[in-house]
C-alpha cells in the first residue's frame, strides 16, 4: 500500500514533477503522465523488472541505469529523468515501488488538470461518480468485479463518462477500476479524490446530511472547517434521509457525528442497560 512509499525518493521526484509542470503546457504534462502510467503498467506485468529496480543489493545508480536502458527511446526524456529519481531511493519492496510509480503518474495527471484550470471539476466529478456508483448496486458490483477483465470495466467507464466528464476524470476512473494502489474500486476513488484535493492544498470533508444544504449553509460549514483545520476544505456532501436530522462530518481520522440517528441509538443503548 502507499503508506510504504519511500517519502524521500518520492518527494524528490514529485518536486521535479512540480518544477516541470510549472513551465510545461497541458499537452506535455499529459504526455508525461501517460508515459509514467505506462511504465507503471509495465512494472505490473513484469515482476522480475520490478524486483530488480527495488533490489536492496543494488545501488540507486544501478537502478537508474537499468531503468534508462529499458526505457531508452520509448518515453520522453522528462519521464526518464523523473522515474530515475524515483528508483534511486531504497524501497521497502517491489510493491511499494510500483505504488510510487502509479501515484507519481496520478499527480502528473492532476498537475495537467490544474494547469488547464480543471482540477476542481475533476475532484468533484470523481466524487459524484463514486456517489452514482454506490447508489446503484449492480453498477458498483460490475465496476468492482475483479473477475471481469479490466478493459471491459474501463469500457463501462467510457460509456458512462466520456463526453460528460473531463478527460482526466475518465482516466483516473480507469485507474480506480484497475485497483489504484492495490485498493478496491470504491477505496481507489476516495483516495483519488483526496489526492486531487491535496493538489489544490485542500483537505476533504465528507459530510452526510438528512436534507440538501443551501449555498449559504455550505459556505458557513466550509468556513468553519477551514478555520478549524487551518486550510481550505473541500466539502463532499451526501444526502441521506436515514440519519433523520443533524449532520455527520469526517475529515481524515476525525469524525463529528451530530446526527439524530446517532443520538437515538445512544439513547436506546442507555435504556437497555
TrEMBL record:
One Pfam family of this chain: OSCP
Cell location: Cell membrane; Membrane
InterPro entries: ATPase_OSCP/d_CS, ATPase_OSCP/dsu
Coiled-coil features, chain-numbered ranges: none
Domain of life: Bacteria
Topology within the bilayer: Peripheral membrane protein
Keywords, in A-Z order: ATP synthesis, Cell membrane, CF(1), Hydrogen ion transport, Ion transport, Membrane, Transport
Keyword Membrane: yes
Similarity comment text for this entry: Belongs to the ATPase delta chain family.
NCBIfam families hit by this protein: PRK13430.1
Functional description taken from the UniProt entry: F(1)F(0) ATP synthase produces ATP from ADP in the presence of a proton or sodium gradient. F-type ATPases consist of two structural domains, F(1) containing the extramembraneous catalytic core and F(0) containing the membrane proton channel, linked together by a central stalk and a peripheral stalk. During catalysis, ATP synthesis in the catalytic domain of F(1) is coupled via a rotary mechanism of the central stalk subunits to proton translocation.
Record protein name field: ATP synthase subunit delta
Biological source species: Dactylosporangium cerinum
Organism taxonomic ancestry: Bacteria, Bacillati, Actinomycetota, Actinomycetes, Micromonosporales
Gene name per UniProt: atpH
